[in-house]
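Take a look at the protein record below and tell me what you see:
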Amino acid sequence: MAELFVVNGICGGTVFFLPDVPTVLGRSAECHVQIADPWISSMHAMFERRGDSLWVVDLDSRNGTFVDDARVRETSVAPGARLRFGKTTVELRDGVSEKSRDPKGVLLEQGTIVRYLADLQKEVSQGIERADTEPQRDTDPGLHRTTRRGAVARRQVAVLNDIGKALIDAPGLDDCLAKILHAVATAVRAECSSLLLMDEEGRMVVRASEPQGSPPRISETVVAAAAQSRAGLLTLDAQQDLRFAGSQSVIAQGIRSCLCVPIWADNRILGMLVLDRGFVDPFTADDLELVTVVGYQAALAIERARFLERATAVEEQRRKLLRHFSPDVANMILSQEQLDKDPLDATVREDVTVLFSDVQGFTGLTERLAPLELAQLLRDYFRAMTEALFEEKGTLDKFIGDGLMAVFGAPVGHPDDAVRAVRCAWKMQRRLAELNRSLPPDRRLSIRIGVNTGRVIAGNFGSPDRLEFTVLGDTVNVASRLESMAEPGTIWVGRGTYEKARRAFSFKELGAQAVRGKTASVDVFQVSGAIGEV
């Protein structure tokens, strides 16, 4: 049975098992391998056996299936191959054959009890009850209905109940892990215990341990055996177990009776629970059963905690995006469900309209007003300007002192972006007039606006640690120059904007004018008013 190790993304560090039957990978909950990557299609690809080979088949996915960076329709894959679905990279690994499993689940000669996850999952799904004694008939009042299996079940319920109550107050993933470990370690009276999760490189990393402050006793040999066998292991005496005879960590750390159980859910392993105590008082098969069930519950809790952390991060990202984009655009960027690529990747865009505005005589205001009064005036001014901008679905590129730069047509375009930009500029002038009516004469503002349309390079730019969305190019430079040339209270536009907006607005032609930084002159037009209702 092959395995898929997820290298990155929200499922990073997870191992999915691929049975020898067709297995579908995708975003949908109906898929055997479900990965919550918005760039993955609902049903993205399928793995199937053809003879002795494993094949991957793309299911007409939106963003394609890649094997070792080559896009494929279908191809055979071997262990070691790196596959990419959407933005998620996985590595194909060799698993353990079902035939190699011990059918009885007990390696008596090695003193090791094995609880296979597949067996437990099958019993739960089929409602099979395993008992060491025959159940008593309910109709016989003289017999007690309490069996050993019933006691074990009540013990499991009690521990799971303790975990559930503890998780209610857990603020994050690390607290969640610590509470899970404490509950199960207390229940089986472990001397030392650790909870490990897979990192994005496939290594088991300790995320919680008890007693706190002491180094955990972990044998990589035992952990690897549990992961490869996809089973919970109970060693009655790890130092005499032939499986681990060559493990220096078992001997050096004095590990005797040991429980090593995967943290598992369906067909994937997220991590491992490792507990040990002295040989005189070893763990029992009931302890193994309990920890195996807790391993499943722990996986669900971990995935829930990860989901909540991701939701918090998405909300924080949305809050940041709302500083620059209208709510509609921000939500589209976050969802990315209907896009073939990241809308913030740097690309060349045609017919993007750029707007610059600036306050005339702002330096004089800074000399007359106290700093706090000036700050409040700017807040009121920028609030009015950004409201007009977002009403027209524009993007706030940046504030530049007392001015601003806005973009229409990137990252999301509309057929009438130039009209939206001029309408935004017209609204900005009118909103400023309304604001000025509430201000004393010595605090009233006047702005000039420049608008230009053409080709730009749009996307995230900056250092890897700090990226900002912006647009670059000659179109941007001309818009900035038009703003600096415009008279206070006016809106100057270039020919590209004029041609696209002249059916919605009337203009006054100002003729060809020299623009600093350009050898050729630029045709300039001044907005006179709106044609019809704005």
